[in-house]
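Allow me, if you will, to draw on your knowledge of protein folds for a short while. The matter concerns a single protein, recorded as an amino acid sequence and a row of backbone structure tokens. Could you please explain, in whatever detail you think fit, how the structure tokens follow from the sequence? I remain grateful for any guidance, and I place the record below:

…
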Amino acid sequence: MKYRKLGASDLEVSEISLGSWLTYGVGVERDKAMACVHHALDLGINLIDTANAYGRGKAEELLGEALKDTPRDSYVMATKLFVDMGDGNKGLSRAQVFKQIDDSLRRLRTDYVDLYQCHRYDVDTPREETMEALSEIVRAGKVRYIGFSEWSPQNIRDAFAIPGVERFVSSQPQYSLLWRRPEKEVIPLCAESGVSQIVWSPLAQGVLTGKYDPDAPPPANTRATSDSMSGAIARWMEKPVLEAVQKLKPLADEAGLSMAQFALAWVLREPNVASCIVGASRPEQLDDNVGAIGKTVDPALFARAEAIVAEARA
């Protein structure tokens, strides 16, 4: 495993991190989920990413159980707030920041989280209120660092313009060969501001593994056939996209990598990326993902891959 510094923090995070969206506490059986968490730690993965909204707290609860006997300083726990938790509990108001961090700490069975992220931007709460509340929980020792997910460049600039508050150290955007929007403004802005990217969906919900045949139904027991997980993958299941992904296989072969490793190595080529979040329903999936670490790929292969995908998405 290799590690990268997370923005202006003192955290060193693994280049591959373990996510829990749509999986733990919801889509994956408890024993398999627990096995994935423990195997991730064995592989040197130290960043575990979750959110209060994943399974309405169930993902955090499972992670709290899985990690209860693991030394707290041996892993980096990241969670989020914003999404509706029921009974009007949503958003980034001061009251919600204080309530949701305490609820998350209880479910995670820990006294603090290393990274607390705003899951989205809250247009209904003054940004000053949000930033001041986040700063209070950092100074209270409940949170070490703060981050955001899917904020616009202007949202980011506005937050940095607020005086006397804690500064963000991480951004969590969707980013992959199939989704390159952050390259235009978010990545350059963050690189200038001491903020690193922790990327979600670097494999486009598994489509970039190449396991979906454009001329055949999706294989059983995959995200595309799961009632709880298929919605998020639908956008990538269009035939032109799947056909383009199949054309990437010779490039991955030439690089000596699996399709997943090739896609992850492409994301990790970006210096502002600190970590790629991967989901796993089986421990062995993590072995393949971690194989992307430290691989040198001819930039010409990446350029060809980008051209193939761009043509399909045009």
